[in-house]
Specification:
This is PRC-barrel domain-containing protein. With 78 residues, the chain is mainly β. It has one domain: SH3 type barrels, CATH 2.30.30. Helix content is 8%, strand content 38%. The protein starts with 11 loop residues before the first strand and ends with a strand.
């Protein structure tokens, strides 16, 4: 699946069970693999330095590996 990163911003994220998680506010890239690592539910600039730990970011993001489809919304595995 090839899409523009800019097309992901603002899209609503919904689980396969139909639960709304939030919307894409920022994106974390993995430069080693050249792929999207995570979709952030808040802008990185709004996340305090203290919260930028792996555990805190996990609560405010969705691993891109969970993405099942991207259209008007982003569907992720529950």
């Amino acid at each position: 699946m090839a899409i523009l990163i800019s097309d992901l911003y603002g899209k609503e994220i919904i689980t396969t069970a139909g639960n709304k998680i939030g919307s894409v506010e920022d994106i974390i890239l993995d430069f080693e693999s050249g792929s999207v690592a995570s979709l952030l539910l808040d802008k990185m600039e709004n996340i305090s330095r203290a919260e930028r730990t792996a555990e805190a970011l996990k609560r405010k993001s969705v691993n891109f590996g969970r993405v099942k489809s991207v259209s008007e919304t982003i569907i992720v595995k529950t």
